[in-house]
Amino acid sequence: MTIHEFVVMPNHVHILLTVSGDMSVEKAMQLIKGGFSFRARKELGFQGEVWQRGFSDVRVVDEQSFQQHREYIEKNPVKAGLVNLAEEYPYGSLSLKKQKRTGAEAQFVLRHLRHD
Q1: Are the CB atoms for 3 and 16 separated by under 8 Å?
Q2: Backbone phi, then psi, for 16, in 5-degree steps?
Q3: Cα 60–6–10 angle (5° rounding)?
Q4: pLDDT tens-place string over residues 28-60
C-alpha cells in the first residue's frame, strides 16, 4: 500500500492510496483504521470510538483522475474555510512535504556552513 496524499479534517479523512495486487481497498482501510485506533488507545488512553463503520471509495481510473483527486484533497481545508492556503493546514500530506522540504533545506545550509 502506498499513501500518496491525505488530509485529516475535523469530521472526516481523505486518503489517496494505491493498494498492491494482493490487497483490497477494504483491507487497506482496515489496517489504517485499526492501526490508528490501537495507537490512540495505547499512546493517548483514548477509549471511545474513533471511526464510523465503513468508508466511501472512489476509483482512480487514469493520470488526470489521480491529479484531480490529489488537488481535491490538498484544497479541502481551504474549501472548508479552515485556512486561506492549503500549505497552512497542518494535518495533511502537503504540510508534511513542506516540513520535509524545509528540513532538507536547513540540513543543506548547515552542511555548507560547516564546510566554510
Answers
A1: yes
A2: -105, 115
A3: 120
A4: 999 999 998 998 899 989 888 888 888 999 999
Give the chain's residues under pLDDT 50: 116
- CA distance linking residue 109 with residue 116, whole number of Å: 11
**Spatial contact of 9 and 80, defined as CB atoms under 8 Å apart:** yes
CB 2 within 8 A of CB 18: yes
Yes or no: say if 1 and 28 are a contact pair by the CB < 8 Å rule.
yes
Entry pTM: 0.77
SS3 string, the chain, reads: CEEEEEEECCCCEEEEEECCCCCCHHHHHHHHHHHHHHHHHHHHCCCCCCCCCCCCCCCCCCHHHHHHHHHHHHHHHHHCCCCCCHHHCCCEHHHHHHHHHHHHHHHHHHHHHHHC
Hey, what CATH topology would domain 2-115 get? Answer: Alpha-Beta Plaits (3.30.70)
Domain ranges of the chain: 2-115
